[in-house]
Automatic annotation (TrEMBL):
Lineage per the UniProt record: Eukaryota, Viridiplantae, Streptophyta, Embryophyta, Tracheophyta
Protein name: THO complex subunit 6
Highest rank taxon of the organism: Eukaryota
Gene3D superfamilies per the UniProt record, alphabetical: YVTN repeat-like/Quinoprotein amine dehydrogenase
InterPro entries: THOC6 (IPR042626), WD40/YVTN_repeat-like_dom_sf (IPR015943), WD40_repeat_dom_sf (IPR036322), WD40_rpt (IPR001680)
UniProt cross-references to SUPFAM superfamilies, sorted A to Z: WD40 repeat-like (SSF50978)
Pfam (any one): WD40
A GO cellular-component term linked to this record: THO complex
Gene: LOC110683044
Length: 372
């Protein structure tokens, strides 16, 4: 076999190999559904993913399914499609850990947080309608909101490093964005003024997760110190410390993820290889559910609990821990599970894989996130 190397482009070849390796090593830390009008389209279409390369990208499920069908026919669970985003933001220097939508109307903001200590927000409608070519979007699209964690002053006027933001929550009614930070504090930001309203101090280690109930002026945080805490947003005081009842004193694990049910009466905490279910009204732990691997994300679906972790399994359980179903997903380790109001589930994790599961438990499609 003879190869003509006259027009060989060594730089292009190296860039191609590097891009392939980066794609294979990517981790999607959060994938969520974009808001849609249920009167116009009750089915989910847009998935937004935050990845380890600092990018936040939006993917159209209808376009992905159309491309798969045109190329391969009916998709199979083993088939992985490399998807091109229709919107791409180089949001952070370092990994992007979380994305949320602030509002669900024409003024909705797409928020992200990451390892660089910033929370950034873009107007979602402008991103959807942007005519900027995808390969030029990256860092050229400027955010509408830029919030950076404060630095703390120590001895001899030394300032601390800027701590990362591991998760965010929103309260559109009160105009607030909440951040779970790496300095063991949670912060409440005012959207209008871009200033910190409240600092929540009390955890002994960095925070993994944060949620903002809609029915009360409170937030709930989960920390590496092994506890979850409920805070009063009016004064920043901790009103309850939730310490999961573990089987032994040696079993000390962080609270890696938390979730509230729709009634905001039940709290699920993922800690190590266990899920703990609390009745908040009774301030009592109701059940401890053993999981085969470390639990990394959890969400309620009515009276059921969906959980993913350091394996490829998506588990559905009842409140007492009975396994109702298990679905093998594409990511070997999953960091995110999100539920659409139609019942469609999206699971994301290692190697940049996003798995879309229908409300009937079948795989709709699996795609790999890419950079541009």
């Amino acid at each position: 076999m003879v190869m003509d190397a006259t027009n060989w482009d060594e730089d292009a070849y190296r860039n191609t190999i590097l891009h392939e390796r980066e794609t294979q090593c990517r981790t999607v830390f959060r994938a969520i559904f974009a808001p849609s009008n249920p009167n116009h389209n009750p089915n989910p279409d847009i998935v937004v993913a935050a990845s380890s390369d600092g990018s936040v990208a939006a993917y159209s499920l209808s376009s992905i399914l159309s491309s798969i069908e045109s190329r391969y026919g009916v998709p199979t669970p083993q088939q992985v499609f490399t998807a091109e985003p229709y919107c791409f933001l180089q949001a952070h220097e370092g990994p992007a850990y979380d994305v949320k939508f602030y509002g669900d109307d024409d003024d909705a903001l797409l928020l992200s947080c990451g390892d660089d200590g910033w929370i950034r927000g873009w107007k979602w409608k402008e991103l959807e309608e942007s005519e900027t070519p995808i390969h030029k979007q990256g860092s050229h699209v400027k955010p509408s909101i830029d919030l950076m964690n404060p630095q703390h002053r120590g001895p001899w006027y030394a300032t601390s490093p800027i701590s990362e933001n591991n998760a965010i929550a929103v309260d559109h009614q009160r105009g607030s964005i909440y951040a779970a930070a790496g300095d063991s504090c949670a912060y409440c930001w005012d959207v209008e003024t871009s200033k910190i309203k409240t600092v929540f101090k009390g955890h002994l280690d960095y925070l993994h997760s944060i949620i903002a109930p809609t029915g009360s002026n409170q937030i709930i945080t989960g920390s590496e110190d092994g506890t979850a805490r409920i805070w009063d947003c009016r004064n920043g005081k901790c009103v309850q410390v939730i310490s999961p009842k573990r089987e032994s004193l040696k079993e000390v694990s962080s609270v890696s993820c938390i979730a509230l049910d729709a009634s905001e009466s039940w709290l699920a905490c993922g800690s190590g290889k266990s899920l703990y279910v609390w009745n908040l009204l009774a301030s009592e732990q109701i059940s401890r559910i053993s999981t085969p691997t470390t639990c990394q994300d959890v969400v309620f679906d009515d009276n059921h609990i969906l959980a993913v972790g350091a394996s490829s399994m998506l588990s559905r359980m009842d409140m007492n821990g009975k396994i109702l179903s298990q679905i093998r997903c594409a990511p070997e380790s999953a960091f995110s599970v999100s539920l659409h109001q139609s019942g469609v589930i999206v699971v994301a994790g290692y190697t940049g894989l996003v798995d879309v599961v229908s409300q009937f438990g079948s795989h709709s499609c699996t795609f790999r996130c890419t950079s541009v």
